Write a sequence for this structure.
């Protein structure tokens, strides 16, 4: 086993990897930008190395500095987390060339799955069903029209190198095609440095269901069942759950077998995820493979009892998987809410800042993964996710009951705004409770609170802050009153703090 591992990431995932290393008695090396000097992952690691100024391109995305940091600290392996270099074959190769171990798949597998068109071709050849569409990259508008004539509108234009919900546009009619194409090509060039694109049939109200896989260097590949990720905004996941309330036992078995076949087709090693779109008739189609640990891995850990990050590290050290497919079962149900520093009243634009007051939920069945603490600053330079709140229950109902309770316990106040209220709303929505939702649910149903509906809560928040200041209480300075995010009701808090009676 490794003695020391460098984590080429920040935030909650860096802390998550540190925890896995601790349990395996591996020492950890954090890297940090100037904006992250006081970050939680830096405090938690055994060693920490500065790698540059705040912009990621000058720090977390500097291959030379990361490898130098590993050399200087004597780390033997590098865990990339998710995002940043996690799906970058060039980085994986540079790590290997420096004589270090990349904790992830072989560069070849990253490359094959990184290009969506190449991945579609490979999967088709391996007998994995893909979303109907163009078999190859397209070059002209006329070619797009020809494919559209064949598969019919609506269609989805997609950048071959796309990711993170970027570089795709749905087109419902021929007249919209030219401008959508220009937009996709522009976005593909600026975000991914490649204008290659292709076309998929736009599936009507599909569900995003993915399958976790683990593969070791000895050729064993298993799946760890599904995660339903259909609660999305702008094609990005907001809430995930496992098992999926939509998947039947037969469908689960079929998806698992296809996921294992897909992973084997690219010689996959490590933890990875095969993403599928499922239609109302429970047909499912390969969408893409994520060749890394994912944000939502925790819910799979909760229902299978497998520590995916520890397995990733053990696999990278050459160990065989300690279980077979038949040893794996789903026990109970888990839900995860992604808590973002963003402003629901301002189109969910990132709204980072200092966290003045913070109380995480706790108690039975609750897991919090975070990179922040009370008093910390959420920097503007990176992804605005501040915590993942996951709950487990004996069944889906209990997991959701616990999530509702945990969300109400969650107190966060300061300069930042959060999407906590969206989660509180969702966990009470009859359609979500019934498991009857698709990828368009959130976009269609959720309306952020209006000025009017917020007025009462705001008044209570102002009262709290004013009373606290009057009593020379610990009113955090610089806190914007409007940013107070009370849990159930600010009135309740104000009353309990005894603010209403003085
Ligand atoms: P990214 O790599 O940017 O995450 P994906 O290909 O994984 O992009 O798709 C992300 C999301 O976009 C899906 O979960 C789904 O909501 C939507 N989407 C992608 N392709 C299609 C399609 N052909 N039809 C309908 N929705 C789609």
């Amino acid at each position: 086993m490794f003695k020391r591992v460098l984590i080429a990431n920040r935030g909650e995932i860096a802390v998550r990897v540190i925890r896995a290393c601790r349990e395996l008695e591996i020492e950890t090396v954090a890297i940090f930008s100037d904006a992250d000097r006081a970050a939680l992952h830096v405090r938690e690691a055994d060693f920490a190395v500065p790698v540059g100024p705040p912009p990621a391109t000058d720090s977390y995305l500097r291959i030379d500095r990361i490898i130098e940091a590993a050399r200087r600290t004597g780390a033997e392996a590098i865990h990339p987390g998710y995002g940043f270099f996690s799906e970058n074959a060039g980085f994986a190769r540079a790590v290997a060339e420096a004589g270090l171990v990349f904790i992830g798949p072989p560069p070849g597998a990253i490359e094959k799955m990184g290009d969506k068109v190449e991945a579609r071709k490979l999967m088709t050849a391996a007998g994995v069903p893909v979303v109907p569409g163009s078999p190859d990259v397209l070059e002209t508008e006329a070619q797009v029209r020809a494919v559209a004539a064949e598969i019919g509108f609506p269609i989805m234009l997609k950048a071959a190198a796309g990711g993170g919900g970027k570089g795709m546009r749905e087109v419902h009619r021929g007249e919209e095609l030219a401008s959508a194409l220009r937009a996709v090509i522009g976005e593909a060039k600026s975000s991914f440095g490649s204008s290659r694109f292709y076309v998929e049939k736009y599936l009507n109200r599909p569900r995003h269901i993915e399958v976790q896989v683990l593969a070791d260097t000895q050729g064993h590949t298993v799946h760890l069942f599904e995660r339903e990720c259909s609660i999305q905004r702008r094609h990005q996941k907001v809430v995930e759950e496992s098992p999926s309330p939509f998947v039947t036992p037969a469908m689960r078995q079929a998806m698992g077998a296809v996921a294992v076949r897909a992973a084997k087709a690219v010689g996959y090693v490590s933890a990875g995820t095969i993403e599928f779109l499922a239609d109302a008739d429970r047909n499912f189609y390969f969408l893409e493979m994520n060749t890394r640990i994912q944000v939502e891995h925790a819910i799979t850990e909760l229902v299978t009892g497998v520590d995916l990050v520890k397995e990733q590290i053990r696999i990278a050290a050459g160990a065989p998987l300690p279980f077979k497919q038949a040893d794996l079962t789903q026990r109970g149900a888990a839900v995860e809410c992604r808590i973002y520093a963003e402003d629901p009243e301002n189109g969910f634009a990132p709204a980072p800042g200092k966290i003045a007051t913070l109380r995480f939920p706790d108690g039975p069945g609750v897991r919090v993964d975070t990179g922040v603490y009370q008093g910390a600053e959420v920097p503007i330079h990176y992804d605005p996710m501040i915590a993942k709140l996951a709950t487990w229950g004996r069944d889906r109902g209990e997991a959701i009951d616990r999530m509702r309770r945990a969300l109400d316990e969650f107190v966060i106040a300061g300069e930042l705004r959060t999407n906590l209220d969206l989660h509180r709303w969702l966990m009470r929505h009859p359609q979500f409770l019934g498991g009857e939702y698709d990828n368009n649910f959130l976009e269609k149903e959720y309306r952020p609170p209006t000025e009017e509906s917020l007025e009462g809560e705001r008044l209570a928040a102002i009262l709290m802050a004013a009373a606290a200041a009057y009593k020379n209480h610990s009113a955090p300075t610089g806190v914007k009153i409007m940013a107070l995010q009370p849990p159930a009701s600010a009135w309740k808090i104000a009353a309990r703090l005894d603010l209403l009676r003085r």
Residues 477-484 have pLDDT under 50 and may be disordered. The domain at 132-201 is CATH 3.30.1490.20 (Dna Ligase; domain 1). The chain is about 35% helix and 25% strand.
